[in-house]
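Protocol step 4 of 6: record predicted structures for both targets in the notebook before any analysis. Target 1:
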Amino acid sequence: MEWNFLTAEELAGSLRAGEVTSAELTDEAIARIERDDKAINAICVPDFDRARTAARDADEARARGEDRPLLGIPVTVKESYNVAGLPTNWGMEPHRDYMPAEDAVQVSRLKQAGAVVLGKTNVPVGLQDVQSFNEIYGTTNNPWDHGRTSGGSSGGSAAALASGFGALSIGSDIAGSLRTPAHFCGVYAHKPTLGLAAGRGMVPPLAPAWPTEPDLAVVGPMARSARDLTLLLDVMAGPDPLTFGVAHDVTLPPARHERLRDFRVLLVDTHPLIPTASAVRAGVDRVADALVDGGARVERHSPLLPDLVEAATVYTQLLFSSSVARFPVETYEQLRTRAAGLGADDRSLDAVRLRGMVSSHHDWMEASNRRELHRHGWRRLFAEFDAVVCPVTPTPAFPHDHLPDPRERRIDIDGVEYPYFDQLVWAGLATMPGLPATAVPAGRSPEGLPVGVQIIGPMFEDRTPLRLAELLEQEIGGFRMPGEPASPA
């Protein structure tokens, strides 16, 4: 039996039935990593000895009659999470050897659920790129085309899943860092509602692992099936036991509907600030056809949709104001000088990014107030619709581009070049108001590259986009990963 490409749900069933042991699953996963990861470079910090010990412990626990949600399931963890005994450097050379003393809260939850951690997955420097490469661990390649990126910043996790290196992974998302790699690599990811899953211990090197409430950023699950996303989200969800967890637990409401024909869906595939590549539009159309065939109510336009230009502007300002928080004073002053030279009528996203980097607290508060208007607009929309389906990024995975200054990079959209960071507008649509969004594979481009969409749902109704993702998976059907056998044998 080839176990490496089965879902976590399927593996759990086989473990319960005694058809396989965790030790066997773990050894097979490690063998595949050792055989194939030289070409992919997804697993930057292997932890095979401890994984084998954890697998044996899981088998012994099962023999005693224990059964936990992830008992014996091999998984990976994004490098940016603290794992006691393993380096956490975020790809930053000065912190190459930083070793945290404690596990991040989500790593603890994985272990408490019985998961077997195979190792950590690669990231971009400081998690601040749509690609995953750094001087310490090198470049992670897309499993479908090694000349292209796997995405970022959870690119190592997505590539690992697509390559059969563990059944689940955990990542993080502030600018599509869960959704974009999933879209590029043909797997599933879920950006939870802001604040749903505790992020303590997912911090830069040397930063104290204290409970915080970061603006925009979330931690979340990645998997090879939509149902596995729900399985892992149930492990991850809940407040930090040091803060809100002292007083309350989280109980998510059920999905609004169980049947496809009961869903009301708004599809959006064009953005006023950047075009959508034909391959991505085809993916949206494929999802639209599946929804219609399943009897769902589908609309392409609604006056209730918050203004996309305003949404992108507010998101960009909030995102880039936080991205420079730790910059040296002299760098900040250089940015202030550049921003002062902008024309008053320059409303490009490049200008918004630069102004955001040097925004005052007053500016930030104004932008945050505008965000609240958008949140209210989304509430009104979700009274009429259950979900919004739209692109994750304008293109499929693009060729590696490691120009040191990202401002000089360009993305090619059907033969026309656009500023590199403009591609973030689709990710920001859900991130800025803090909404849940599930990335779902929707087929392949003419070049054979994966193409996905994201399903945006109402705040704290994460089970609604997740359930719609499950139904779409049933309608569209999966497609095999590179090297995956046609059927388990």
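Target 2:
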Amino acid sequence: MKPMDVDQTILARRETIIAALRKIVRGEGVIDNEIGRRPYESDGFTAYANLPLAVVLPSSVEELQAVLSYCHAHDVKVVPRGAGTSLSGGSLPLQDGVLISMMKFNKIKEIDFENRFAVVEPGVTNSAITRAVEHKGFYYAPDPSSQIACSIGGNVAENSGGVHCLKYGLTTNNILGVEMVLMNGEIIRLGGGYLDSDGYDLLGLIVGSEGMLGVVTEVTVRILQKPECARALMIAFDSSESAGACVADVIAAGIIPGGMEMMDKPAIEAAEDFVNVGYPREAEAMLLVELDGPPVEVDHLVGLVEAIALKRGATQCRISTSEAERLAFWAGRKAAFPAVGRLSPDYLCMDGTIPRKALPRVLAGIRDLSEKYALRVANVFHAGDGNLHPLILYDANKPGELQRAEDFGSDILRLCVKVGGVLTGEHGVGVEKRDLMPEMFNEIDLDQQVRVKCAFDERRLLNPGKVFPTLHRCAEMGRMHVHAGQLPFPDLPRF
């Protein structure tokens, strides 16, 4: 990853900037000492770290407005941060930038069961929403593996998914509205507690914008009624290719499971050691498939999935007989990332998405790349929607291993694009995939995306250095492009 240039004039003004911020956010709301800033130096993408210029923890919209207005007026870069669980470096701070933590915005402001929505602040954790509504039989559908820690504001920034996103959608499908503050301090509201809004779908731009367009201060989420019944199947296979083919067959049969996850042998063994729920250690691959809905429908679909799996050569098919057993099946999957962390000092968690039919080919390709780079890999991913999470194991203390792991990950993502997939499914681009964007987009595509950024943040002060591989000034976006001495549309008269 190419480091960003550090603005020495900002560093020279550090004490002045901190003094101004302390006048806006009183008490302990500004952290400027090294020890206090150290916990914020990286997010879940721990391969890279920077100490921020300062950390600011506003506790009101008015404070946030004032901080952003000051930074805008004085050309100070800003990086917004939620719980810091991003796996793409989306909230990696800048040495010459202020990091704004939104974790004091942690209130659930309104719950409307009749209209099925809740209004929450961005620092509320993902699982806290479900806990707040489950007594009435409701829940919030997107469920990333980090749901007990990740914030809803971070979920909006990265368009997070989870094991149930196949049937119930990603964050973007479960957000009804946001309030946000732009870099110049202006407050805007998009959407709200209703099904749709008039005008352009700007809300669709905000979800997944990785904190580059504004800082979210309030989120209106859709809450769903808990399904009447849910059962899960734990299906073992003697090859990853057979498991991948089974995934395609289930979807081709018109069955949309509530969740459909896949783990390979290293991940199975690590998870079983971690939670001891009876995963098939002898299997080369395992599928977890959950069906939900009315009991009669669930029983019928369970039978269909079992038949498809056996036809594809499943060596074992275990069906949950109680709610406790269903939750036990999922406990290992939810704990897979920390479990794999016991296998190696470090790992990179990749996040490519591919067409389901390409699963066997890509899994074989990952195996070949593992041999090429001499690094182990454990596969844990959302099989139903083709969102892969290969975990590349390495030791950062060994010279060259981090670079090999990054090169390995880059080749996996290039393979995803080659088979018709995309660079990310739910972790975002951040700094991790930033320099791979030209693998998927040409210069015209990227310029159009930068124009959207410029419409919200013309000085490009908000979370700079993320997503886009080349930093342009917004003024450059209107330039005339001359290629090989030829202007576009040479037949048109020019004056």
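Step 5 preliminary note on target 2. DSSP finds 16 helices and 18 strands in the chain. The chain has a mean pLDDT of 93.
Proceed to step 6 after PI sign-off.
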